[in-house]
Amino acid sequence: MAILLIFLLGVGNFALHKAVLESRHPLLGQMPWFVHMLGGRVSLISEFLILLAALFLIASDHSVWWGIGYVLYTAVNGVSAWLILTRRV
Questions:
Q1: Following CA atoms 63, 69, 71, 74 in sequence, which dihedral angle do they give, to the nearest 10 degrees?
Q2: Contact 63, 2 (CB under 8 A)
Q3: Does the first or last residue of the chain, that is N or C, have fewer Cβ atoms within 10 Å of its Cβ?
Q4: If we measure between CA atoms, which residue out of 35, 27, 40, 18 comes closest to residue 84?
Q5: Residue 63's pLDDT is what?
Q6: What is the mean pLDDT of residues 3-8?
Q7: Where are the beta strands (DSSP E) in the chain?
Q8: Is the CB of residue 74 less than 8 Å from the CB of residue 51?
């Protein structure tokens, strides 16, 4: 059950990340050069690696704390994406 929840949160993180990249917010212009490599795909790869690490750690360790950590990570991503997409920053 935890693996499914983390996977679904990962899909949500990818959607938020893609929406932020496509928003053309001026804040993105201030990001380091590696964020813009390959049209933002490098940052999406890092998002995938974080998801993959969370899934592996939950599957191998059977610890709830990795899941809680990923839920908190998703919450921070959601708030920051909301702030960027609604132009509050």
A1: -150
A2: no
A3: N
A4: 27
A5: 82
A6: 94
A7: none
A8: no
Query: Which tokens hold the place of 7?
Result: 């996977």
CA-CA-CA-CA torsion for 71, 31, 45, 39, nearest 10 degrees?
Answer: 130
Query: Token pair of 6, please?
Result: 């983390």
Q: How far apart are the first and last CA of the chain?
A: 36
Average pLDDT over residues 24-51: 80
* Overall number of domains in the chain: 1
Range of the domain at 73: 2-85
User: How far is Cα 9 from Cα 71, in angstroms, rounded to an integer?
Assistant: 7
> What contacts 39, CB < 8 A, 6 or more positions away?
21
Task: Say what the pTM is.
Answer: 0.85
Of 55, 66, 62, residue with least CA distance to 10: 55
